[in-house]
Amino acid sequence: MSQLALHQSTISDELTELLKSANQVINMKRGTYLFREGMKASELYLILSGRVKVSKGTSDGNELSLRICSQNEIVGELTLFTDQPKYLFDCRILEDCEIAVIQKDELEKKLFENTTLAFEFMKWMSDHFRKTQTKFRDLVLLGKKGALYSTLIRMTNSYGVEKENGTLIDLRLTNQELANFCATTRESVNRMLHDLRVKDIISVHKGYITIHDLGYIKKAIQCEECPAKYCSIE
Prior knowledge:
By secondary structure, the protein is α+β, with helices and mostly antiparallel strands. About 40% of the residues lie in helices and about 25% in strands. The radius of gyration is 19 Å and the shape is elongated.
């Protein structure tokens, strides 16, 4: 049985048809890049295992982290149906990955031929755009503190594990990595996390954050309680 066939039974129903369009599986090592901003875009990727980070370089040489993608997530999708497409973001491998490669031209052809595939892909794209819109809304409207607080909420929705004393974000993060998600500086994140620790809203142990009072953080930014599928870091 092929690698693609082996994986097909493990992915969600929404992505089964998409995986049928993949023509190969590649393995990528931690620290390498799947693609870089500005490169010619000819492939779409479906993460089968491992994690990648999608980010955007800023004019001042810093990085804005947009998504952490893991199993069953698609990357490279924003370049479909454009002339001479180029990747809009960087995609860096955070953990050794196994990735299904889908040729863009072949996928576009199958989207026109296969209504099931077209419907599922459009549904996935709609959800993805809504996630992106809510993230940029938070960054623009809520300021530095709001950006951090909304990032923490998204982290709990994606990686939260319930413990006796709160919700553990089961993803090790440095303050610089958090700052990259918030479009702010490490020093600002240091101060804001310190304030939350003093108030016993959170605690941090070896890079892992536990949120003891998620309600406080949600109230501070007047959280709209969006469904977790849209309010996530993925």
